[in-house]
Amino acid sequence: MRIIKLDAIDSTNTFLKEISSAEALEDYTVVTAKVQTKGKGRMGNAWNSKSSKNLTFSVFKYLNGVTFDNQFYLSIVVALAITRTLKAYNIPKLFVKWPNDILSADKKVGGILIENVIKKNSLAYSIIGIGLNVNQIEFEQLPRASSLKKISGQTYDLDEILQQVLIHLNHYFTLLDAGNTEVLRAAYESQLFRKNKPSTFENAKGELFSRIYSRHF
Questions:
Q1: 134 in Cβ contact with 85 (< 8 Å)
Q2: CATH for 3-212?
Q3: More confident residue, 140 or 155
Q4: Distance, CA of 85 to CA of 89 (rounded, Å)
């Protein structure tokens, strides 16, 4: 497994997309950075993270048999890999807030940004961006943000957590490749935040809409 470690980069997703277009990459090639100057979240939102305190990384993943119709299983796989990792560190009350936020109770500790690359009218590979709040304890003007250290009081080894996420990512992708979608879906749905309860969201245009968490795929 190739892991590229950078001190600073605008976005690990952008960097990984650029090198993937220039050379053939090994599956699970990882780019991680101490700080991202233009880290991205859903709908172009910024991902703010203090240098060397958190995990900001992207994973290159070839897609085997993932179609346009079932591509949401990519989000399921990544979310399950993260929550399984955090459970091993005794982080309590873990939920997935649809579609791509990882919560402990009602506080955000992580986010996912998946960008798929299409070739010859099919999904060729994904750039999986993951941000995890690990050792940062102050989040200015972000009252709903938290971190592993803020929750537990412990300081964590970033490289160790990265390796655990990658191990679990491989595990869940193996299940997906084997067609075990029902198992993945059941595990994901069991962790949905506010399942079967109405929630309000804001889209990229600033428009509010309501949705009930149940099944989204």
A1: no
A2: 3.30.930.10
A3: 155
A4: 7
